[in-house]
Amino acid sequence: MSTIKGIAASNGIAIAKAYQLTTPDLSFEKKKIADPQAEIDRLDQALQTSKQELEKIKEHALQSLGEEHAEIFSAHLLVLDDPELVNPMKDKIKSENVNAEVALNETATMFINIFKDMDNEYMRERAADIADVTQRVMAHLLGVSMPDPALIDEEVIILANDLTPSDTAQLDRRFVKGFTTDIGGRTSHSAIMARSLEIPAVVGTKEITKQAGNNDMIIVDGLEGKVIIQPTDEELATYKDKQAAYEKQKEEWAKLKDEPTFTKDGEQVELVGNIGTPDDADGVLANGGEGVGLYRTEFLYMGKSEMPTEEEQYQAYKAVLEKMEGKPVVVRTLDVGGDKKISYLDLPEEMNPFLGFRAIRFCLDEQTVFRTQLRALLRASAHGNLKIMFPMIATLDEFRQAKAVLKEEKEKLKKDNIAVSDDVEVGIMVEIPATAVLAKQFAKEVDFFSVGTNDLIQYTMAADRMNERVSYLYQPYNPAILNLLHNVIEAAHSEGKWVGMCGEMAGDPVAIPLLLALGLDEFSMSATSILPARTQISKLDKSKLASLKEKILSMGTAEEVVSFIKEKIGD
Ligand SMILES: C=C(OP(=O)(O)O)C(=O)O
Ligand SMILES: [Mg+2]
Question: Which of 6, 204, 242, 463 could disulfide-link 473, Cβ–Cβ 3.0 to 4.6 Å?
Answer without folding.
Answer: 463
